[in-house]
Amino acid sequence: MFGLHAVEAALKNPARKVLRVLLTENAERRLLEAVGTIELPIERVTPRDLDKLLGADTVHQGAALDVEPLPEPDWHDLAASAGGRPLIVLDQVTDPHNVGAILRSSAVFGASGLVMTRRHSPPLNGVLAKSASGALELVPVALVANLSRALDELKEAGFAVVGLDSEGEQSIESLDWSQPTALVMGSEGKGLRELTRKTCDSLAHITTDDTLASLNVSNAAAIALHTALLARKK
Q1: How far apart are CA 202 and CA 156, in angstroms?
Q2: Which of 43, 82, 125, 202 could form an S-S bond across to 112 if both were Cys, CB 3.0 to 4.6 Å?
Q3: pLDDT in tens, 97-138
Q4: 147 closest CA partner among 206, 93, 71
């Protein structure tokens, strides 16, 4: 894990087990101001040391951690604790930068969690954590083996399962966000798979000016979550 925001959030997260802390002098000073005492011994490194470890193109900002994965939440518990906030479900979204950005929007706009398929989803690694800018430590991520079965179980639990699709018959602004809602989003380029579309209760679109065919999945998630937040505030 690397990058100041991701490292800071991991150090503040009691559920995250940190094995090694590698910091440049400047990064150490900034992180100590942000998190206070760091319990583990700090390994002082140079930017070049981290370039060698992580790759020359990695934007590490002088900070890296060796960590264990977070405990994986049971997605049933995640759904049960939604508390009126939407649950984001990703249908084979594979780009870690997009998933990281969706996690960040989920933290900012109040999604209850993220559900992804165990296969055909990016690993919860340093690249994704950097893109999430600390949100990987804040938003629970559950993995499921069979997405359509999980959606059926969400419906049985009282969730409205809404697929986000440009061809959706209703707009996200018209949805009843006061009820438990699982918002399902498809992969980059391909969108929702046919079985996923059929499993959803309904499909909804984002109102646009029709100058572009579609939005990037992470941008679409941010808009939808913001819409849901405004609706809940009313």
Answers
A1: 15
A2: 82
A3: 999 999 999 999 999 999 999 999 999 999 999 999 999 999
A4: 93
Q: Tokens in use for 1?
A: 């894990």
Q: How many CB atoms lie within 10 A of CB 10?
A: 23
What is d(CA 167, CA 109) in angstroms, rounded to the nearest whole number? 25
CA–CA separation, 20 and 27 (whole Å): 15
Residue whose structure tokens are 């029709």: 210
Distance (Å, whole) CA 160 – CA 175: 10
pLDDT tens-digit map of 56-87: 999 999 999 999 999 999 888 888 888 889 99
Give the 3-state secondary structure of residue 4.
Answer: helix
Phi/psi of residue 19, nearest 5 degrees: -100, -40
Largest CA distance in the chain: 56
**Do residues 227 and 174 make contact, with C-beta atoms less than 8 angstroms apart?**
no
What does the chain come to in residues? 234
Cβ-defined contacts of 33-36 (< 8 Å, 24+)? 34/8, 35/8, 35/11
Question: Which pTM does this prediction carry?
Answer: 0.93
Give residue for tokens 């960590």: 67
Task: Tell me the domains of the chain and their CATH numbers.
Answer: 4-67 (no CATH), 75-233 (3.40.1280.10)
